[in-house]
Write a structure and sequence with these properties.
Strand content: under 5%
Helix content: 40-55%
Shape: elongated
Largest sheet: 5 strands, mixed
């Protein structure tokens, strides 16, 4: 820290109690000055030689026969006045970054100008500020912070503006020219940790990070911090990413509980203003701040009860970053007044804004063909797939809440149902979790939630779990079995549709037999039955027989052997086909509409990216394990 010593005589100021200060000298004092609660017993000379204001005050007291002078409004109070008084006595005074602003403002109050005496206090302080303080990074920040206590004096004397310029200029300098100390507690580069043996003086200079300045600025009050960031932005030499990192560091330092999305303080008005200011300072560039930081800022704004305008702005910004969000980011706790655990309405708004933005982008893209050269159309689709996968994982987490209404679950899932993706394992896992935690829902509600899933897009692991899942309606199990058989036939090199046995063929819709790529069948609204263990076993037996026969065909096994294998099917299974036929006739009662779009029954949303081990289950299963998805 820079400092300057003034005067050469020893300090002769003495204290008597807490309210009296006097100069120990052979000559008796002849002037009393009241500064706040402190009385100063001083000599008219040499004070009158250096302070024009005191000269005028003494002249007034002589005319009115008053023995004391009151100067209660001097900036800096008794401490600052004492510094000025010692300078008049030529006693030793030390100025530094912490007291120089107070001394400068007090000297201006006392009118200690060069016109009164050459080399007066104001001149000496200005030299110290210009030659030392404003050239030091940390001293400039300290002085800037102290100016707040001396407004409007510090503003009128241009101390604030000089500090702002000094700090902003140093923050904007090229990193190779940074040769002063600074605070930086971020993760160091490998060479900074000593792992790079080839580090030399040149590369060391290049190791100064572009955001080296952000932590030191966190010491500033929010008003001064705002002015510094605005000044830095005006210079235009700092990247938006560095500005965003500075705002993130400030929020983590100055907002207690920010990392947890809550506020742990007793001054909500202060924190509300701070959140509003940080939001206002956010750079306009998309990648300047992370989605996680924006979501925490939104959570904090809700906790601080910030205005709706500011919340809407944060939601808009988050919607532009939704592809970078994680499930953990979106698990926002609901207010204490709510019965549900997580605030699913906020996530619904974010996803809705994201989808609207995507649609507007597609419209703009189609209107301007040049856009395709800059941003291919698949980039937008990729973002939608990422968001849909995150929402699948989010739904699986919030589904554990026993108080979560079905309507909220479905409304959020339907927002991404139009997104085309290869797997629906994620939404199946979410559906299964909801069915497990909400066993009391009605049959129609069970069917409604299952419409979110497309059975054709389940992985082998998910199919294995689904066909043994007693929580699923009958129609879902049958669809899983049928489409799994189609997939097995296609992967083994067979035709698009397996050669079904006569009992099974009579139970399936004509459209499904003709084309495996047709839309999922529309099921009769009354078919909400659940398979019994025996019925499920019989159905799986028939499909297992078909699979064995198809494999035999592809491996050129003797056709006579195949007929023999087919004939060995247990008579009980054949008889069970009669019972199955009744169930299938319900399931496929709308077979004339097989080729129509069935988006009301299934969705096209992508699978969750959550991966985990697959567990083998019996007919009575628990929740679906995390599925391995490639």
């Amino acid at each position: 820290m820079k400092y300057m010593k003034l005067g050469s005589k020893p300090d002769q100021f003495q204290t008597q109690g807490d309210s009296i200060r006097y100069v120990a000298a052979e000559l008796a004092t002849d002037m009393v000055i009241n500064v706040g609660d402190v009385k100063f017993y001083l000599h008219k000379f040499p004070l009158l030689l250096k302070s024009y204001r005191l000269q005028k005050l003494i002249a007034c007291t002589n005319e009115e026969n008053i023995d004391e002078i009151n100067i209660h409004d001097i900036p800096g109070g008794p401490a600052a006045f004492e510094v000025c008084a010692k300078f008049c006595y030529n006693m030793t005074v030390t100025l530094n970054a912490y007291n120089v602003v107070a001394a400068r403002c007090a000297a201006d109050y006392l009118e200690m100008y060069e016109s009164v005496e050459k080399g007066n206090l104001i001149y000496k302080i200005e030299v110290f500020l210009t030659s030392s303080i404003f050239r030091s990074w940390k001293d400039s920040i300290i002085v800037l912070q102290t100016t707040k206590a001396f407004l409007p004096w510090s503003e009128e004397l241009k101390i604030v503006s000089h500090c702002l310029e000094s700090v902003a200029s140093k923050a904007s300098v090229e990193t190779s020219k940074v040769d002063w100390s600074y605070t930086y507690n971020h993760k160091k580069l490998p060479s900074e940790n000593g792992s790079d043996l080839h580090c030399n003086a040149i590369s060391w200079q290049q190791l100064v990070p572009i955001d080296w300045w952000v932590e030191d600025l966190c010491e500033l009050h929010i008003d001064l911090y705002k002015r510094v960031i605005v000044t830095i932005k005006t210079k235009g030499r700092i990247s938006s990413e560095a500005i965003g990192e500075a705002l993130k560091a400030y929020a983590n330092r100055r907002l207690p509980g920010f990392s947890k999305g809550s506020i742990q303080g007793s001054d909500p008005e202060k924190y509300r203003y701070m959140v509003d200011t940080i939001t206002w300072l956010l750079p306009k560039e998309k990648n300047s701040v992370s989605c996680s930081f924006l979501i925490k800022l939104l959570q904090t704004s809700i906790a601080c009860e910030c205005g709706q305008t500011m919340r809407s702005e944060l939601k808009r910004r988050i919607s532009l970053h939704m592809e970078d969000a994680t499930v953990g980011d979106l698990l926002i706790r609901a207010p204490d007044s709510e019965t549900i655990i997580f605030d699913i309405d906020i996530v619904h708004d974010l996803v809705e804004n994201f989808m609207l933005h995507q649609k507007r982008g597609q419209i703009d893209s189609s209107a301007d063909n040049r856009f395709h050269d800059i941003c291919p159309s698949f980039a937008s689709d990729d973002s939608e797939v990422k968001v849909a996968r995150v929402i699948d994982g989010y739904l699986a987490e919030v589904a554990r809440d026993p108080n979560l209404p079905l309507s909220k679950f479905i409304n959020l899932a339907e927002l991404v149902s139009s997104v085309s993706r290869p797997s629906h394992d994620g939404i199946y896992r979410a559906i299964d979790m909801y069915l497990k935690e909400h066993p009391g829902i009605t049959k129609s509600e069970r069917k409604r939630i299952c419409r979110l899933m497309d059975c054709r897009k389940l992985s082998a692991e998910a199919c294995m779990h689904a066909v043994q899942n007693e929580r699923l309606p009958l129609r879902i199990v049958v669809q899983v079995l049928f489409f799994e058989q189609l997939r097995a036939t296609a992967s083994s090199g067979g035709g698009s549709t397996p050669d079904l046995t006569r009992p099974v063929k009579s139970l399936l819709p004509v459209g499904s037999q003709r084309c495996s790529t047709s839309a999922t069948s529309n099921i009769d609204d009354n078919s909400d039955a659940v398979l019994t263990a025996k019925e499920l076993k019989d159905l799986k037996g028939e499909f297992a027989t078909l699979r064995l026969r198809d494999r035999g065909d592809n491996n050129c096994i003797n056709s006579n052997d195949m007929i023999k294998n087919a004939a060995t099917v247990d008579d009980s299974k054949v008889r069970s086909s009669v019972m199955s036929k009744k169930m299938f006739s319900k399931l496929w009662s709308n077979k004339d509409r097989q080729s129509e779009n069935s988006s009301s029954d299934t969705s096209e949303s992508p699978s969750s990216s959550n991966a985990g081990e697959t567990k083998s289950t019996s007919c009575k299963v628990g929740s679906i394990p995390s599925l391995n998805i490639s």
